[in-house]
Write a structure and sequence with these properties.
Layout: E1 10-12, E2 18-20, E3 28-29, E4 40-43, E5 46-49, E6 54-55, E7 57-62, E8 76-81, H1 95-98, E9 105-106, H2 109-118, E10 124-129, H3 138-150, E11 154-159, H4 165-171, E12 177-181, H5 187-194, H6 198-209, E13 213-220, H7 228-241, E14 246-251, H8 266-276, E15 283-286
Parallel strand pairs: 8-10, 10-11, 11-12, 12-13, 13-14, 14-15
Antiparallel strand pairs: 1-2, 2-3, 4-5, 6-9, 7-8
Length: 288
């Protein structure tokens, strides 16, 4: 498709409204309005992606920076992102990209594939869709992933996991690895801090782990999601899917709307890792 074609996964309803079915919010969008993510606009009764082919950030990164420690370690991957996110996390580390209309430049899937192939001489293994939430960039990610896969390279999603099953099923045959954020292991945290629901993220992790390589990241925020009990519950649940799922426990630094929260103490992370290792084989600390 191209930028002028309608989005995937929506239905037309009465009075020129549309209902988006890409993510669990299932936004009902009035004409000339956008959904929660800010990237899909109702234009005359059809839904259009505003960010198709629009890139805000691009860099050749170590795969471990995604973070993916057990997927082709030591390699580099071309990381790209657009704008938009379908969660509203108060602690967002990439808020200038996710929640503001950053400066963009346009690129086609074919041009991005060409760039990825040119960088293989420098060690590039493919494309990582990251920085903002890639599911809100769905059509471009889908079109590009097909080309990257055909070229023999790898596709990686760095995602919050907040996506409906049908779009995920359509995309995942072209995805080789995912790092999925597990923001916390409590319903209240997702509801109050992220404006979402934990169950949908759990569904994504469980399904994705049966289809591709999955690693999970938990950003540990003092006083909000750092209890050993919750770390234990999350680790036990992940191990019930597979004890080989990689868990990254990442240090929080003040950002966005949480500038008054202190950085995570190193001891808190070490204690959390010790607990998680009771259930999982691979637990890494990040941002330390």
């Amino acid at each position: 498709m191209n930028a002028k074609e309608p989005a995937m996964f929506f239905n037309k309803i009465e009075d020129l409204k549309v209902k988006c079915s890409l993510c669990p919010h299932k936004c009902i969008i009035d004409p000339d309005k956008t959904g929660v993510c800010g990237t899909r606009k109702n234009i005359e009764g059809s839904l259009y992606p505003l960010n198709y082919g629009k890139i805000t950030s691009i860099a050749l990164d170590p795969i471990e920076k995604k973070p993916l420690n057990n997927f082709k370690p030591g390699s580099l991957i071309l990381s790209v992102g657009s704008f938009g996110c379908n969660l509203k996390c108060s602690f967002c580390q990439n808020w200038t990209i996710a929640h503001e209309f950053s400066k963009c430049y346009e690129i086609t899937p074919e041009e991005l594939k060409k760039k990825a192939l040119e960088l293989t001489s420098k060690g590039n293994i493919g494309i990582a869709f990251t920085y903002n939430e890639p599911s809100t960039w769905y059509e471009f990610v889908y079109d590009t992933s097909i080309l990257i896969k055909k070229a023999g390279l790898s596709n990686v999603l760095v995602t919050n996991g907040y996506i409906e099953r049908k779009p995920l099923e359509k995309l995942i045959p072209f995805i080789d690895a995912m790092n999925i954020d597990l923001k916390a292991y409590t319903h209240s945290f997702y509801r109050d801090i992220c404006k979402g629901q934990l169950k949908h993220v759990k569904d994504t992790i469980e399904f994705a782990a049966s289809k591709c390589h999955v690693e999970v990241t938990m950003l540990i925020i003092p006083g909000l999601n750092d209890s050993i009990q919750d770390i234990a519950l999350a680790s036990k649940w992940l191990s019930s899917i597979s004890p080989d799922i990689v868990l990254h426990l990442t240090r929080f630094f003040p950002n966005y709307k949480m500038g008054n929260v202190v950085p995570t103490p190193i001891q808190t992370l070490e204690n959390a890792r010790k607990e998680a290792l009771k259930h999982l084989n691979f637990v890494y600390l990040g941002n330390v």
